[in-house]
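Issue: copy button drops trailing tokens. Both records pasted manually instead:
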Amino acid sequence: MREYELVFIVDPTQDEEGVAAVTDRVTRAITSTKGEVTRVDVWGRRKLAYPIKRFREGTYVLLRALLTPEGIAEVERTLKLTEPVLRHLLVRTDET
């Protein structure tokens, strides 16, 4: 397994419980494929650089996780199907 960093933006109409529900859904997708979440950090509501789906703000969430190749596909699929997620970025952290 390799370590990855996932940042996703949740639409601003979601309250804290909505953001927690989306984060929980992504965490379940990671753990269901034998991955492990090492860190969850909610950055809070921030202004977007450009409008996405007519939203000018979003709630940013950072996740660090250990994932298998199958886990990556499942997490990407889950994020694409989760409607409140405006954008996401999944990158592998360097092993130095």
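Record 2 (pasted manually too):
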Amino acid sequence: MQNTYSPSRIGAFDKCKLSYKYVYIDELESDIETIENFRGNMVHQTLEEFYKLIKGGAVKPQEWVISKYRELWGKNYTGNIKIVKKELTADGYFNQGQQCLIDYYDRYHPFNQTKIVKTEHNVNFKVRYNGVEYPFRGKLDRLDWDDKVNIFEIHDYKVTNTLMTQEEADNDWQLGLYHVAVRTEWPDAQAIKLVWHSLLLNKELVSSRTDIQINELQKGVIEKIKEIESCKYFPPEKSVLCNWCDFQNICPLWKHPKEMEELPVNEYKKDPGVRLVTEYKKFEEAKNELKEEIYKIEKEQQKIKEAAIEFAEKEQISIIEGPDMRLKIDVRDELRAPTRSEDQEKWERLRDFLIKEDKYKDVSTVNNNMLNYRLKIWPPELIDKLTKFLIQKEIKAVRLIKK
């Protein structure tokens, strides 16, 4: 049976593949609700009730809107609602939601801009491209009809502190897909306006889609669905969104840390996982101390190397005698690729030559290590042509050898 998709389902895959698997493949349920989601739901329900009355011809006063919001909050709020940001309170979230409704009312009163068609409207439609189609479902916060210009308006309420940019609005999948949904129900719709209400910030964003953009959108969505359905590995994605995730108690990134949070100090220290981390950290710190020591040794050794080269050149020798070992001084000429910062013009000429000779892909880029390797296996005639693009540099090396 073919899966039914939604804009939120598509978005969930990109946010965290493991969370997507828990919700849409394993069909796990969560009894956790965050304060942000709760506040958003209360604001949505308040506006739904308000616009239902407007549709029937009654524009209630602002006091009614605030009273309805307070009623819904009081009836539905429980102590189980999760507040991630410990420095904030439920009252603070309540007040923000109330203020955004006041601002919204003041902005759009007397609410005669358009005709209300639907509120919290469930839609079912198909996304199609190149003979492939998938069923979709979703919910429109509000659908209006502007009879003055004969345009449908899809309205979406955002109750978050983040504000999308105009570019993000112009490329948003959700309302773009709802454009498809409205066209499915009203095929004669000539134009559709997409409107986002960022309620906490009292900001409105408007966008629209051309037929070409809608076609490209459906193509992109179907490609994303194919990626989702071919996915075999669902890794967790660590981000700030983890704080609001319902599945930390089973997520491999969070399961053990969350279990440890509940333990008293004595039991915490005895946990085998905690002890492994403690031991590993001890050796990592020892390694870092050794790295510091090695760095100091190499720095001093480099000074001796430079002194040995200088001594060998002065004495015109290539072997320096020691008690039980010798230092061998090797001097050779080596062709190497110029760096971009060293000689921009020569670097570009070398790159262009490699492209012309169809050898650029062999070195990936003008990279000295890769080029040196290729110089050992390319034909002599090609190397002869290549030489004029290279830099000749004298390499001096010091090796410790047995007597």
